[in-house]
Amino acid sequence: MLIEIRDLKKEYCNEFVSTNVLKGVSFDINEGEFVAVVGQSGCGKSTLMHILGLLDRPTSGTYSFEGKDASLMTDDELARLRNKKMGFVFQSFNLLARTSIFDNVKLPLTYSGISEKKGEEMVKKALESVGLANKIRNFPNQLSGGEQQRVAIARALINHPPVIFADEPTGNLDSVSGQNVLEILQKLNEEGHTVILVTHEKYTAEMAQRIIQLQDGRIISDQKVTDRRSAKNGLIK
Amino acid sequence: MKILEAVKTSYKSLKANKTRSALTMLGIVIGISAVVTVVSIGNGAQALIMGQFASLGSNNIFIEPGAWSKRMESGQGMQSMFEEMEIKTLKYEDELAIEKDPLVARAAPLVMGVDRAVYQGNNKKVTFLGTTPTIFQIQKADIYIGNEFTFEDVKSMSRVAVLGYKVKEDLFGSENPIGKTIRLKNNNFRVVGVMQEQGMQMFMNLDEVIYFPVTTAQKVLLGKDYLNQILVQAADENRVDEAVESMRSTIRERHNIDNPEKDPAKDDFKVVSQKETAEIMTTVTSIFTLFLSSVAAIALLVGGIGIMNIMLVSVTERTREIGLRKAVGARRSDILKQFLIESLMLTLFGGVIGIIMGIIFSYLASVVLSLSLSIVWKFDLPLNAIVTSFVVATVIGLVFGIYPARKAASLNPIEALRYE
Q1: Does the CB of A40 have a partner CB in chain B at under 8 Å?
Q2: Domain boundary among B251, B267, B283
């Protein structure tokens, strides 16, 4: 089992109020799955993704990644797992401004001790797989939103991580670019990556094999998608 | 993350903010170049002083009017030097008495003044010295053309003059000045000799000087009967202190000073050996250099605070970047390293530029000082200041960089990513 969470809770506190964002969530995700987490905004799906992505720790409950309890890991171990085992795609791309596409994609390699020469190869391959090999010397502000998000995907998969997290990856994109991004995610899944997609759009979610629906910090449904859409064919509005 | 990677990353992000990085470095550049320049000029001044004293030989003793004052040692020597010009206690007769001391090889009286010397259409501002022919032995000066004036001239108060080399050049050009008449303070003087080029000695350019018999200078030029100084050379280099004491008793006796406890503060004159004078001058310049260096050091400190300030701004501004770096696998130590290296690079680049500029400034200063004071001001490469400022730059980079760097490293990745 890749991901196993049991009774996961997350509570945010400030001086005045505490908010229960996750109120006990449990599920398993197997290697190679394509899971969509859906729900209205504020339902806790982003928080859930941050915890699954080891960017945040739960208030209570257990999370084991590849059979290891995340709560027992040090910050450095978490950083190492994020580096080697996970790739992140964010709604707002989060590319470094004034930094070339090459350096942006290479960023995770900086922290994984891969040689310069090998790294260069990897960056080229990653950019090729998202169809942007020709933009390697460009800068983010010279690229369209869709292209920037594809660069972000290239960055996420540069280390060949088993899991890719995508948090509303199409949220800032027009439908054509969005479709393109989703196509890539689907392709990655077919190549064996586990993809966890957070979205609030039902038709985007239907590209996954399985949809977990959250409401108010709890799971209200967790089911296989019977009519799975292909990004390539369907989905044009 | 390997150090080399971290250096590259830091370099890239500094390059991405060129103007800001340059302005931040400027503080360090100014501070370090100021320190290097000040220390270099201070060292140069000290070398000059030591050189001036060394040129005379180590057995010189100076007798000056006025009591020994603590102020001499506390760096107000210049002021008291001017006040002493008007103290009237030291007489030519004192010099004559001292000369007879067996511990004294030779002595020369000295009165000084500044005025304009005129020869036909040419005129030149000169320092004139009233003295005896012994001065040429003390100054180890040789005659270029003509003759030195004689003790006879001193006795008879002759209106004769011996010119410094530059004075002759400026007043006479290629003309032979011997036997010609120059005017000074509406009096005519016959030129009897010209000295060879001598350069600076005891901070006086001897080439721009006119020598007169001491009696002539006192009566005709200055209208006074006292001396500004007596130059003495001890007979034995190893018995300078003895000579100093012996001369003190001689003059006390002559001046009727009852001073059995031999307290120099009670005398109306002072006897200082060249060694003591050199020590005092060195102390004065050291204090001066130290004072100016501390001002420069404050500039450096301000530069350091500037770096911290900019690094803090940079951490805030790049919160999302830090969050992202953490999301893709940067550890705390990686972020810490990156920001520390950034501030270190700023200070080290700034330091190197500052040192180079400091060297250029102090070189220019040595050229300008040499030209404007017509002396040989040795350019001094202040290695100790360079090493110190390099170390200081590094320490500043670390000290003022550590706080912003820790702040960056301790950011929670998810909060950093959400930061707007």
Answers
A1: no
A2: B267
Q: Specify whether B252 is located in the same domain as B367.
A: no
3-class SS at B33?
helix
Tally of domains in chain B: 2
My answer on whether B26 and B123 are in the same domain is no
- Please give the distance of CA B78 from its chain centroid, rounded to a whole number: 13
Residue B329 at interface with chain A, using a CB cutoff of 8 Å:
yes
The answer for residues whose C-beta is within 8 angstroms of residue A81's C-beta and 6 or more apart is A54, A65, A73
Residue B283 pLDDT greater than 50, yes or no: yes
Work out how many CB contacts closer than 8 A connect A with B.
Answer: 66
**Do residues B313 and B258 both lie within one domain?**
no
Nearest to A201 by CA among A235, A160, A154, A151: A235
Closest Cα in chain B, distance from residue A108 (Å): 5
Per residue in A8-45, pLDDT (tens digit) is: 999 988 888 888 899 999 999 999 999 999 998 888 89
How many secondary structure helices (H) and strands (E) does chain A include? Answer: 7, 10
> Using a CB-CB distance cutoff of 8 angstroms, which residues of chain A are in contact with residue B323?
94
B329:A111 CB<8 A = yes
The ipTM assigned to this model is 0.92
pTM for the complete prediction? 0.72
In a domain, B62, yes or no: no
- pLDDT, averaged across chain B: 86
Assigned domain for B68 exists: no
A235 touching B, CB under 8 A?
no
Range of the domain at B167: 88-267
Subunit contact B331:A50, Cβ cutoff 8 A: no
The C-alpha atoms of residue A38 and residue A36 are separated, in whole angstroms, by 6
Same domain, B40 and B173: no
> Where does a domain end: B245, B267, B289?
B267
**CB-closest option in A94, A110, A159 to B1:** A110
Are residues B414 and A55, on separate chains, in Cβ contact within 8 Å?
A: yes
Tell me the sheet residues that pair with B127.
B114, B209
Residues B263 and B319 in one domain: no
Per-position DSSP letters for B122-157, written without gaps between them: EEEEEEEEEE-THHHHHTT--EEEE----HHHHHHT
Residue B417 corresponds to which tokens in the numbers above?
């990513």
Cα torsion angle, A114, A120, A124, A130, sign:
positive
- Looking at the fold, whether B413 and B326 belong to one and the same domain comes out as yes
CA–CA min distance A209, chain B (Å)? 26
- Contact assignment for A107 to B320 by CB distance below 8 Å: no
Q: Is B420 exposed, middle or buried (CB count within 10 Å of its CB: 0-12, 13-18, 19+)?
A: exposed
Same domain, B104 and B31: no
The verdict on residue B291 lying in a domain is no
What are the tokens at B107?
């002595």
- Is B81 among the domain residues? no
Do residues B45 and B96 both lie within one domain? no
- Within B262-395, strands assigned E span 269-273
Q: pLDDT tens digits, residue range B301-329?
A: 888 888 888 889 888 888 999 999 999 99
Mean pLDDT of B215-233: 91
